[in-house]
């Protein structure tokens, strides 16, 4: 009943076609109903908790006004945070607990896989930037803290020793990566993980000062020449950052069978080494997952975090017990392919994203979560 008083003339609202137009008209009328109208309306909704609206005399009207789209609109108009390329319908699975592999699975697959049984499994570094200086037009990365926490929990549950740094300048990021790559503890573990979470462009991610850290420089720190403690050990990189500002609008799928098969890639055997001392390519045993394709923007939900990190943590927690990393990243790609932006009335409505990965791995990379020999 109080909502009728606040809303004003019902006819003016119902005269508008479509729920979105009615929502806009409602917000136009609301300020005209006096200084306490908005707070009274919010209080009425809190008291009724929506499920009691059916007991009110204006059930039909309130069901139309108090739809989910209406609350999204309220959030956009009244929230102090800027709207980003991130508003969607909240799809995506919750993050499950990491499931452990069985001793039987380990013994059946370890002969074709990288040795990955050290305790800890390896060292992991997360560099997460969500606040940026005002010199560059880089907005606050709402939801970035969710990504960081999710990855930190995932890596710990997978058996990694995790270090996290927040809001570093480009030079500080470079220094952190260099110090991390030179840690003597890499000698005693079987793998390594680096995650970079920030704004970015193709080939680089931004520090909190708006300057770029070049990704090739970061990768170089961990190659066989600069990081001998990690030679022949798998090194995983995950980059949650835009690689351009183009929004993938997507295309309509034609009827018919989906083209899902991709051509394979055949590797030739290496030439037999004639010298006494074995040599390695400068860069090998690396795999890098990117949130989006070259030139495109990465999508992020301001409450649940980025699409890519949500998919990554979900897939790795569920499937690392019996799936190697490359195949898990294919599953991540599949989840990202199916996801779609939800932001009615904006250019980002029904936008798409496509993640990808590149690899110089030379064996299957199973994480064997929970498995410890002899225990």
From TrEMBL:
Keywords: Hydrolase, Protease, Thiol protease, Zymogen. The keyword Hydrolase applies. Gene3D superfamilies: 3.40.50.1460, Caspase-like (3.30.70.1470), Death Domain, Fas (1.10.533.10). InterPro entries: CARD, Caspase-like_dom_sf, Caspase_cys_AS, Caspase_his_AS, DEATH-like_dom_sf, Pept_C14, Pept_C14_caspase, Pept_C14_p10. GO terms for molecular function: cysteine-type endopeptidase activity. Residues 247-268 are annotated as: Disordered. One of its GO terms (biological process) is proteolysis. SMART domains: CASc. It comes from the Eukaryota. Residues 120-246 form the Caspase family p20 domain. CDD domains: CASc (cd00032). Residues 276-369 form the Caspase family p10 domain. Residues 247-260 have a biased composition (Basic and acidic residues). PANTHER family: CASPASE 2, CASPASE RECRUITMENT DOMAIN-CONTAINING PROTEIN 18. Belongs to the peptidase C14A family. This is Caspase 2.
